[in-house]
Amino acid sequence: MTSPDTRRPTAPLSSALVTGPTPIVFAGCSLIAGAPECDCPARAPHLDDAAVEARARGMFVWQQKAPPAGRAAARRGIDGLLAHARGRGPSALVAELLRMSVLLRIMEEDTAHLVEIDALLRAYGELAEISGDVCWLAEVAVLRAHRAVIFDHGDAALPDTAAALAILADVADPGPGPDGLARTQRMSRTLNGLLLVLLKLGAHELADEVSQRALAVAESGSGPIDRLIHQLNRVRLQLSWALRLERGGREAAAATRFVAAAQIAHIAARLWTDARDRHLGGGLPPVEECIVVGTAYAMQHPGPQHLARLADLGRMAFLVDDRILLAIAAARCHMTAGRAHDAVRALEPLRAELSGRDGPEPLLALALHREFALVEGAARGGVPRSPGLEHYAAALEEELWALREARLLALRSHSEHHRLAREHGAVAAQALQDPLTGLPNRRALDMRLAEEVASPTSQPCAVALVDLDRFKDVNDARSHAAGDRVLRAVASCLRTALRAPDMVARYGGDEFVVVMPATALPVARAALVRAADAVAALPEDVAAGVTMSVGVVRAPLDVDPSAALAGADAAMYRAKHQGGNRVVIGTVPTGDIPAGPVERTGRLRRVMSQVHSGAPGHRTAGR
């Protein structure tokens, strides 16, 4: 078998990988066109988000079959696009580029990338937390599990894998419609990634459950390429499962899995042909250009008739798992023809390569070493091993089988624990959440403010009070239901536009409070101006033309939270009287502030008059 470039990716980590007919990638990138570096970051200021994402996807696809220098250049190009997108503020584009950047580094299996991987994963996880999208949170858990299974060891991946299983178990499959399509694609991608983690962990039974659900989701709303990818990964599952069963001495069960792999490969071949004809207008039969299809057929009925095809497939194999499957298939084809020495030569280069690697051995690598031991014995004339050695090998396999069963049990136990914890957390969260907007409520705000001003290790926080301009007109001219839709839209926009550590809470009516930890006033004002601009830019049919008046103060440590809110409220009044749609900096008042949550009556009004002597005694009509 031909050995491709070293440091190839070892596993398909995402449905975005080229596991189907190679599509026509975006041609506007200089790197894809043959240049040594990517010029997309320099062009990004002149591109909209869709064009930036298209270029990133093109590079992501292209780099999977590129040499190491090309993969490094693609990584730098996508990093440059990510830096540009972050300059525009939080967005779906930033999230997608973060995901690609994480995957690129995980695929390299280079520990030099670990610090960057962890930082990117934290940023991606923060965006998922802000969104509240449970499927997105599951995808973050899957990526963390990928990172653990590649760079640490299998057991380190169990908590995140179990978390993903628990989250996805509670997520209903997406429905029809535009939002449903986007959710279907994310769900399909997340399930696919989870399946591949479970394969790495040897949890084939759980992987089979996830695979069946992934295929059902893909059939309900994803495109043909997604369906093809899921079928190809089902072939991988059956082949890996069969090899593991063989190692455990379950030959009959293994034979059943090899048959299933070939049957699913036949389905995948039809999807491959349809996708290839649609995108490329024709090509070779799938068995000659799709590694897992060709391997599945050869594994079911090994014979010399497959050898030339397997050699051709080997020249295009870039995933280590694919190379292992091809090597084992080729060795078995040689053995059926009585060529044991050729079988050894089919396995030896890859066996030596994997033996020199640090870190945990993947399950397929164990299958490769077992295969080599069998064919090497045959090549030496079938000299039997000592009974003691045979017994030792069998005992080791039984121990590995028991460890795998224990890992499967641990996964199910961890998953149930996460499910119960999520149920408990959901009940607790309801008491701290505004039911209309999903934001933290007044009680949660009081708790957070008390923490921020009382912590001796923190820096002073900024506190802003946001009031919507002309919101009363929405309720009067349209309906309260329309007003509720506007409040939800503004809440979502605020949460997205502000920074991950900032807390946005609904204070009541059309008022929101923002708590910005350890933030100087100029920084806070700049962030709030961006948020106000984002709200003002919302379409008329979404936000009914409302804008924001914002007052912001910096709360000294040990200050009464009520005083900070009073100062922000007074500054917000000044923003109102200056025409609205603006941010005004205020100061925290001194004086006798009522303890506990701020109420805008009585004594607080008198304190506000100290700070803003010209303020009227009532709100403006637009308030």
In summary, what is this structure?
One of its GO terms (cellular component) is plasma membrane. The chain has 623 residues and is mainly α.
Written account of the structure:
InterPro entries: Diguanylate_Cyclase, GGDEF_dom, Nucleotide_cyclase, Rev_trsase/Diguanyl_cyclase. One of its GO terms (biological process) is cell adhesion involved in single-species biofilm formation. GO terms for molecular function: diguanylate cyclase activity. It comes from Pseudonocardia hydrocarbonoxydans. The chain is mainly alpha-helical. Among the domains are: 123 residues, no CATH class; 170 residues, 2-Layer Sandwich (Alpha-Beta Plaits). The protein is built from 25 helices and 5 strands. Strands 2-3-1-4-5 form a 5-stranded mixed beta sheet, sandwiched between helices. Helix 24 links the parallel strand 4 and strand 5. Helix 7 crosses helix 18 and helix 10 runs parallel beside helix 13. The chain is elongated. The N terminus and C terminus are likely disordered.
What features would you highlight for this structure?
mainly alpha, 623 residues, Alpha-Beta Plaits
